[in-house]
Amino acid sequence: MLNFVGLFKLFIGYLQLFGFIKNNNFLYKVTGSFFNPGPYCGFLSTIIPTALWLSFSADKPYIRHLAKTYIIIAIIILPFLSSRIGWISAITGSALVLSHIYNFNLKKKQNSLYIFIGALLFPLLLYLLWYLKPVSAAGRIFLWRIGISAVLNAPFAGVGWNHVAGALGNAQEEFFRNNIESVSEYNAIGIPQYAFNEYIHIAISWGIPTAIAVLASIIFLIKSALKDKNYGIAGSIVTFAIFAFASYPLQFIQFIILICILSSLVLLSPRKAQTYYYLSIIIICIIGITGIYNTYTRNSNIRKYNNFICTEISEYENLFSHMASNPRFLFDYGMILRKNKRLYESNIIMLKTTEISSDPMPLNIIGRNYEDLKQYHLAEKYYIRASHRMPKLLYPHYLLMKLYGTPGYNNINLMRLEAKTIMMLNPDVNNESMALMRKEAQACLDSLEDQAL
Questions:
Q1: Residue 164: its H or E element
Q2: What is the domain extent for residue 409?
């Protein structure tokens, strides 16, 4: 069954590669049924070890041929997907399968030599993979660092699955508040939505004990598969476990279904006792249904809101109970409240947005609301928070520069500092708005210099 699923996914990828159908993201050539090539590569890689085992061990010839076909066309497309962790996980899972196919024995001198050579080459491989996309790799490591900080803020209970992005945003904000001179980190940062490590993501969501339980479950599944000589399934679970270490597969229904299938193939083995058999079915059903429901509900709410055109506050009020986990909805709700001069209510909604989103823009809007209310010290507080949450953005510094030039809250030294910061920063995106902010910052510096003369 996994071979057929994999071949179907590959068919979609090849149609995109040759331009017959559009993919889900114009930035990439191939994404399969996903939004970007990373998860697509991970999905294809997870099936490879099972296909590899079937290509050697399946009783029926057509299954062996299907498995070989899948392996060949998957290997051809994987380089186009540029997912280093996808490649590493596929190689590792396949190596586990091949070691059992060829009865690899560590005690044999020849095999010990292979292990030694592999140990020498592995660091070189890691370096080459790092060099392929160094900024991306540095960003991922920085994100793990931020994720661990978020875990330590709620180590036992967690913050809940929908609040991970907000927790990551708070942790990133805290990091740059305490390490504002860490300019070397700026190129690696973004607006984090995922931890890019599902074990950290789970720990942020539900606490360290749950993350440990998940790791223990994965180890148990691998050991059970090896014990039952389901080497292909064991290799696929190893592949998934490694891929989950540096990506976000559990954010997709396809991966949740895939890992449930792999788990069921281990736990529902005919060798298991009858009681264990039924217990396994119940556990898999609960985990699978819960994961699919949560993912589907989140994606459904996003799609549902994208089809709405809300122009009145009453419409947002009616939708609030259904869309409270959608950051875009909350932000738009806060903006329409601001537009109608209901500034305190707007701030309440914007604060709720920061709980489920790492985007600094809600903090900027809270600051603007307080500035309109003439509560300049609070406006300053939220502008500074926004500047720490995403230090390389110009807008929070622009708002601070304007605030420090406001009569009654004038601070020439801080205004000059913010103007210099705007001129120094090099954001990822340069557009007309950025150019106007830089122009105004330069004009501010020129004016202050003239006044000094």
A1: helix 164-178
A2: 394-453
